[in-house]
């Protein structure tokens, strides 16, 4: 089978594509024949050994896939060869096959495309958990989304609207903001040209925002935190800007607001029953078309490095999905 391999830590240019032996399902595992794999920002971190998960070399990046079950190991129940499934595998997804513990495998409804299924768990799952459990967002509240045109930010725009919030999308270009508006944003801020704090004052009549969804970090964190309404919730999603901010902690005190961490993987481990309840709701929304991942680029697996470079440089609007030969209707070579 074909796999994108990280054999030494570094940028996307260090990745290689090789033929490797086909996988065998160990006890408790499901081997998925990958049709599609989403490209996410953590994939750029894991190959540089900068992510919280640090697989041993060599490994394939790719934390999220959709495909069909190829084989199941001893003790696996509820899955059989041929089943359509998705998985937040963590790594290993940029390959023709990936072996995943059964607990990380989810059935995919027949009416949902493989590309959409592959784009759900990391972005929409994180956002659903963030807005529902961590922010406890209420209908009528105002939600600020930073980095609103990326896959993660767009999921927050979409789910925020679905939950009845007024959504303010912030991004770095007019094209990105227009895209966010097409996906439901009520108002926009171009923080490459506009003062974020002053614009938020104008948009909220000086009241501030009830929740901030921040996958960006860096220089935008403090002005966004200063723009919180009383009792607001600041959601720490990630740091695509590269800098982990250090905001003044007198701001939460003065505003009576909370800075709340969002770690979807940790949630799944520590609260598996609640995780499953939210996942069931999210899968239902996907099947009903109430959430629709904004896939703007479909590329062959062989272009994984270029896709990661685009994500790392924050050039991507929407979501990139890689497809395997099987996902493109071809017959992959197994060895």
Protein architecture, described:
The protein has 335 residues and is α/β, with parallel strands linked by helices. It has 2 domains: 2-120 and 293-323, Alpha-Beta Complex (Quinone Oxidoreductase, Chain A, domain 1), CATH 3.90.180.10; 122-265, NAD(P)-binding Rossmann-like Domain (Rossmann fold, 3-Layer(aba) Sandwich), CATH 3.40.50. Helices cover 30% and strands 24% of the residues. It is built from 11 helices and 15 strands. It has helices at residues 41-46, 114-118, 121-134, 151-162, 174-182, 196-203, 221-226, 250-255, 264-270, 272-288, 304-312, and strands at 2-5, 16-19, 29-38, 65-72, 84-87, 97-101, 105-107, 142-145, 166-171, 187-190, 209-214, 228-236, 258-261, 295-300, 319-323. Strands 3, 4, 5, 6, 7, 14 and 15 form a 7-stranded mixed β-sheet that branches. The longest helix has 17 residues, at 272-288. It is globular. It starts with a strand and ends in a 12-residue tail after the last strand.
């Amino acid at each position: 089978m074909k796999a994108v391999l990280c054999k030494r830590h570094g940028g996307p240019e260090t990745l290689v594509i090789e033929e490797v032996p086909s996988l065998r399902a160990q006890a408790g595992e499901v081997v998925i024949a990958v049709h599609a794999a989403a490209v996410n920002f953590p994939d750029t971190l894991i190959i540089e050994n900068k992510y919280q998960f640090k697989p041993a070399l060599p490994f394939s990046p790719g934390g999220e896939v959709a495909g069909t079950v190829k084989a199941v190991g001893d003790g696996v129940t509820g899955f059989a060869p041929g089943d359509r499934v998705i998985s937040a595998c963590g790594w290993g997804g940029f390959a023709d096959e990936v072996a995943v513990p059964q607990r990380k495998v989810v059935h995919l409804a027949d009416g949902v495309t493989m590309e959409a299924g592959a784009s759900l768990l990391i972005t929409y799952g994180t956002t659903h958990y963030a807005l529902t459990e961590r922010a406890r967002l209420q209908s009528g509240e105002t939600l600020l989304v930073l980095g609103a045109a990326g896959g993660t930010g767009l999921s927050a725009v979409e789910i925020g609207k679905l939950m009845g919030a007024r959504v303010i999308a912030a991004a770095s270009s007019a094209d990105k903001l227009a895209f966010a508006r097409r996906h439901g944003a009520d108002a926009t801020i171009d923080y490459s040209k506009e003062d974020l704090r002053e614009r938020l004052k104008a948009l909220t009549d000086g009241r501030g925002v009830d929740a901030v969804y921040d996958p960006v970090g860096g220089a935008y964190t403090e002005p966004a935190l200063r723009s919180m309404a009383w009792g607001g919730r600041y959601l720490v999603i990630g740091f695509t800007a590269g800098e982990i901010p250090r905001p003044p902690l007198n701001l939460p005190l003065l505003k009576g607001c909370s800075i709340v961490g969002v770690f979807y993987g940790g949630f799944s481990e520590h609260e598996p029953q609640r995780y499953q309840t939210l996942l069931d709701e999210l899968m239902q929304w996907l099947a009903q078309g109430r959430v629709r991942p904004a896939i703007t680029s479909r590329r062959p697996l062989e272009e994984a490095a270029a896709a990661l470079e685009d994500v790392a440089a924050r050039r991507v609007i929407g979501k990139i999905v890689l497809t395997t030969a099987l996902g493109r209707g071809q017959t992959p070579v197994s060895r």
